[in-house]
Amino acid sequence: QVQLVESGGGLVQPGGSLRLSCAASGILFRKYAVGWYRQAPGNERELVAIMTSGSGGSTNYAESVKGRFTISRDNAKSTVYLQMNSLKPEDTAVYYCNARAGHADDYWGQGTQVTVSS
C-alpha cells in the first residue's frame, strides 16, 4: 500500500518560514519524480516545485516562489521536503506532495494546511 504523509504545516506570520515534509512508503522512492502542489480556496491546484528522480534531480519552481522556496529529497529516508522562506499571505493554501513515475504510477498525500497571516 502506497502512502504519502505530509507534515509541517501551520500558521506563520508574513516573512516567516516553514519546512514541509512528505514521507513515502510502499514505493521505490528514488525512482519517482517528486513535487509539491498547492490549492487555495476557490482556486485550482497548482504546481509549486518539482524534482526529478535519482539523487541529483533537477528542479523546477513556480515563478511565484522562485528564490523563496527550495525542494529537496532524501532517498534514504524516502522523504521530500519543501523549505519555505519569506512567506506571504498569498502562499496560504493546502499543500500536497506528489510522487510520480508514470501516468498510472502517480500518488498524492492528504495535504497539509499552510496559513500565512498576522
Q: What's this model, at a glance?
A:
The protein has no helices and 11 strands. A hairpin with a 6-residue loop joins strand 4 (about 35-40) and strand 5.
The H-and-E topology, N to C, reads as EEEEEEEEEEE
Overall geometry: globular
Number of strands: 11
What structural class do helix, strand and pairing data support? mainly beta
Number of helices: 0
Helical content, roughly? under 10%
| First-to-last CA distance | 40 Å
Most strands sheet? 7 strands, mixed
Rg is: 13 Å
Average of the residue pLDDT scores: 96
Report strand %. Answer: over 45%
- The low-confidence runs, each spanning 5 or more residues with pLDDT under 50, are none
Question: What characteristics describe this protein?
Answer:
118 residues, mainly beta, seven-stranded mixed β-sheet, four-stranded antiparallel β-sheet
Explain what you see:
The chain is mainly β and 118 residues long. The protein has no helices and 11 strands. A hairpin with a 4-residue loop joins strand 7 and strand 8. The mean pLDDT is 96.
